[in-house]
Amino acid sequence: MATKKTWLEKLNEKKEPKIKRIDFNFADIPANSNMFIATPQIIDNYINQIPKGKKVSVQTMRKDLAIENSADYTCPVTTGIFLRIVAEANFEKYQQENSLKKITPFWRVVEPNSSLSKKLTFGQDFIIKQRQVEKIND
């Protein structure tokens, strides 16, 4: 029986980003658009560029990633999945090292009352606390 991967293993999996031509309307993406499919590492790297005390919406992150990768849009479905992987993996790292210094500040993108934060294994309180510490207003 295969063992379940940790969130850190999922974050560090080698995946290649892709640009896919969408020939039908998909979520907020119109037909005949080029859709960027990121990787967990790309999402992680993006979040690490956000200055302390600032927040970026998922929509802004998706727009930025599309522009950076010469696409029209970034996939909303995989972005949500990869953002969860980033949050869970970095919380795992936080639990192991008991330090915020070496983790990606995912709370700068994950909104405390979002559907994503409600799914996180560690709950919303950690996000709320880190936003308070950085004086990020919701």
Taking the alpha carbons of the first and last residues, their distance comes to: 44 Å
- Measured by DSSP, the beta-strand proportion falls in 5-15%
- Our count of domains comes out at 1
Estimate the mean pLDDT confidence: 95
Number of contiguous helices: 6
Beta strands, count: 3
Order of helices and strands: HEEHHEHHH
Specify the structural class.
Answer: mainly alpha
Q: Provide the helix percentage.
A: 40-55%
Explained architecture:
This protein is mainly alpha-helical and 138 residues long. The chain has one domain. The chain is 45% helix and 9% strand. The protein has helices at 7-12, 40-48, 58-68, 76-97, 115-119, 125-133; strands at 18-22, 33-37, 73-74. The chain has a three-stranded mixed beta sheet with strand order 1-2-3. The longest helix has 22 residues, at 76-97.
